[in-house]
Amino acid sequence: MRKLFTFMCFVLVLIGASLSTLAQRQVSGTVTDASTNDPVPFVNVVVKNSSPIIGVQTDFSGNYSLNIPGNSATLVFSCVGYEMQEIAVNAAGPVNVSLKQASVELQKVTISAGRRKERALDAPAAINTIEAREIRNTVVATPSDYLKNANGIDIVKTGMMSANVTVRGFNNIFSGAVLNLVDYRIASVPSLRVNTQQMIPATPYDIQRIEVLKGPAAAMYGPNSTNGVVHIITESPLDMKERNKSNISLGFGVRAKVDSVDNIENTPPQVVLNDEKEFSKRLAYSAIMRNAGRITTDKDAKVQVAYKISGKYFAGNDWHYDDPFEPSYIIRGRQSKDGRYVYHGDSLVLRATLDALIKKNAADADPTNDFKIDTVDNSRNFEIQNYNFEGRLDFRFNKKVDLVLAAGHNNFSGIEMTGIGSGQAKGWTYTYGQARVSYKRLFAQVYMNASNSGETYLFRSGDDIIDRSKFISGQIQHGTTLAKEKLNLVYGIDALLTRPNTDGTIHGRNEDDDDITEIGAYAQADYAVTSKLNLIAALRVDKHNFVEDVFLSPRAAVVFKPNTNNTLRATYNRAFSSPSALNTSLDILSGRLPTGIGVRAVGNRNGFTYDRNAEGTLKYVSPFYKDANGNLIPIALGDPAGATAGWNVLLGVLADNLAKKFGGNKDQALAFITTALPKQVEAENNMIILNTSGVGVPFDQAKALDNVEDFGPIKNSVTQTIELGYKGIIKNKLALTVDVYRTQIDDFVSALLVRTPSVFLDRESLYEYLLNAIDTNLSGFKILRPSLDGLYTGGVLDGHIADDLAAVGSTIPYGTVTTSDLAYGTDILLTYRNFGSVSVFGAELGAKYYLNKNITLGFNYAWVNKEEFETEGVQLALNAPGHKVNLSVAYTNPDKGIDVAIRHRWQDAFVVNSGVYVGQVSAGNWVDLDLGYGFGKNKATRVGLCINNLLNNQASAFVGAPKMGMFTMLQLSHQIGVD
Questions:
Q1: pLDDT tens-digit readout, 930-941
Q2: Cα 431 to chain centroid, rounded
Q3: Model confidence, pTM
Q4: CA 587 to chain centre
């Protein structure tokens, strides 16, 4: 009986399964674009009201196939950038659908906010998108020029090609504040972490769109994205409509003549600018080439292959500027851990060694030993030459897996501003290689960026910049949906490997121990509570090999969508900037005091713990106080043994002066002095910080310190932002964005500051001691006194010589407060440290009104409440204006091939404090005009005219940058497409 019952159950199950199968029906078809008839991939095709959800996505050819319950159902077709469409399925046969494109703003998509494709309107962040058509219609010298009218973006033009880009202020010269990506690849220069967009080897014909993510983004992108992300996304040759497409363009430009220059603060007057008078010497030229095509022509082939090759050349004469701190002639050389090496003929010789040889030669008066230091003309070369090329191979396997292999190279020569003055880049190259693969929501990549500074050097010092660093990164990311597709997950892991190579010129003794390894993992969950409300949470964990603790970057957002056209959001982000190679590994001996004490800039990887005795008194070391083996002996402040060491330095100075005044040698003079003056003294000590600004005296006695405090190793600088935002399309005419935010930044990384004070004898206590210690009745003193009295203080013969001796003795830096490990001996150390906390409030308003299908009006306004800050006694600057306004009018008529745009930018005055550049930038107005006309078959031939600064408003964008006037660029381009 039991076997019969089991058999009957089995039969019933089979019948049920058969009935279920009979109740289902397979539906298939193709989804195309209603305007272009091109297939639309990744369209969501879902059976309406099905539970559980029944649905699929179209493939790369727009095809889909799914089973529907019963003979009839309603299919919902939805895709980013297209209007949703519902189709009732009743009859047999294929169900083909043509989707209409949504309004321009509704079409915009982004991948940068959540590292997945989504409508820009739905993204939980403030995003600007510059689309391909806008890029094609603008003639520019560098990709950064595309961003100058974007809301909340600060562009500091420092030359015809050079610029610094940041988001919401905190700009700097030679900046890497914004994370710069090209096709998911970090594109900054390795090790230096500077964004040089003119060195990105991509042409305008490659760029599909540029996404600017404003605000901290570390939860998804990791370190150095505190100010946002600029992501350049290029076109895949597999996604072209044409089988083969070639673009070529030639450009011709001219800049206006500039007749004056703004001085840097505290510079000598009467700086004269000698700009080129001849028209032919103010020209610029460009040439661009791109060819892309499919190698496999069968779109149904299991393996599809396509390629792209492109190149660009730009040459011109840059805007002129004369820096008053740049000498007319320089001694070319390079820094090292042992001091500065200088060029002597074709060789590099340690400067101290060469000076000794020169001194010896002068003393020997031997004409056969002709030792000299070579000086060279230090005039700026304003000629720019920049060229690049890039290649790419795309593979698509079974219409599911994409593999991209890409490589590029750029060579730049011109002038680039840095935090320690401008540099002459000569053949600086940037090279990258990348491999990335994607399958559905799985993404993986590995890439390498390499830099070679060529023959680049600094104008102010004559020092070579040696950089042959590499940056290697790998990443794996995956996404999935859970909870009936209400929960969308994105998670991944990446590694960032910085491998500096400065040939000892920047990292000195750390050259073999300066590698930076950063490992991070992240996850984001986007949960649809209802069709109108989404909750988003993300967390990233990062570890830096020179930072002790792991760092957590959380992110939270609430996104409310009352309807398809409006989105409200509230977000919180915590992000960080990790220590750079300079912060951890710098080691340069930049000079020496007359007493032989070095001045050294060092990284701060271990912190500073000052040496103290059992009573807590600080210790110092002096090159004049060593044991019998020549080892330094730490001395406590106020120790008589140390005071005597400083006194002996003074006696040596006196002996030198006497020997020069009366003839004879120093040893004889010193022997005579010690018969008249005490051999030992007692005095207190003063600690004074060396003034490295170049303005004022090296040591200000009025700024003596009472103490110094230990501080820890360099760590991450933290940025936290709370933001409220609105994005909406009103009556399908007005695109409106409103963002209000508060940002707090903690643990700023300081500039290089002196952290080990110099030690001096205290004048008052030394005077009191000498007043009693000098025996004025000694015969030697009576002979010595007339030679010294008044020599240093201007006193008269009846004054006491102790006053003169104490005066000069208290000005000699004879020791340096030291750390407990004595790692750098007596050197004065400059290093980095974290300090302070500042906060800013800001607001941004953006509006774009589509008057009709041809005319668009634009308006942007950005505001921040502070431009200057003081924290822990240190002055900081936003280095960006507090108010900015952009206005634009654009006319586009694709049928007639006409594009016209006029843009106006205004910004308020602002204070600059960045590296050696301190001062103020005046308020400014700029008007730009873009004209384009396409003609011929399919408007394939195009003439473009771009006039930047139409009114020739000559002004500097930053302290130390040249004044720039009108720059006009004319471009002729042609496209050849083969179907």
A1: 999 999 888 899
A2: 18
A3: 0.82
A4: 22
